[in-house]
Write a structure and sequence with these properties.
Strand content: 5-15%
Oligomer: single chain
Radius of gyration: 17 Å
Number of domains: 1
């Protein structure tokens, strides 16, 4: 059974990748609000470095951080409907995550500038996500254009 797209026919691997990445972000955003999966849930604050809640006991989260994951997930799922938008989600989303990685390295974790909040585990996850998303965008775009022809997007 093939998955169809109302504007471009069957979904490309690029679209499926963007949809999967979006679904993972959506899931992470939901999990950040579930006590037990998020440890120290009673210390979950709206924003700021003082939120002591840890997703999976590792990644520092806040209500704002979870909302960002939810919105990013919804964007990925919606943008996966069109091949060019799927590529843009992965490419520019990856760039955003690399910027967040740099931001996390530069700011002090116990300062008001850490309003999202992030910790070392978040920083390195952001780095891996940024590289992976950019790689998916580039590699799967090449495959899509080779298999469909350079003029089809």
């Amino acid at each position: 059974m093939t998955t169809t797209n109302r504007t471009t026919g069957p979904k490309t691997k690029l679209q499926k990748a963007a949809q999967a990445v979006g679904a993972v972000f959506l899931l992470v955003g939901i999990l950040g609000f579930i006590p037990g999966i998020t440890s120290n849930y009673d210390t979950l604050s709206f924003a700021g470095h003082d939120s002591g809640a840890l997703l999976l006991g590792i990644f520092q989260v806040s209500v704002l951080h979870n909302i960002v994951h939810l919105l990013f997930g919804v964007a990925g799922i919606l943008m996966s409907r069109i091949n060019d938008q799927a590529r843009n989600f992965l490419l520019y989303g990856g760039v955003i995550y690399l910027i967040l990685w740099l931001y996390g390295l530069i700011i002090g974790h116990d300062t008001p500038a850490n309003f999202v909040p992030v910790n070392n585990a978040d920083n390195w996850l952001h780095f891996v996500l940024g590289i992976a998303m950019i790689a998916l965008a580039i590699l799967l775009s090449r495959e899509t254009y080779r298999s469909r022809g350079a003029t089809t997007r």
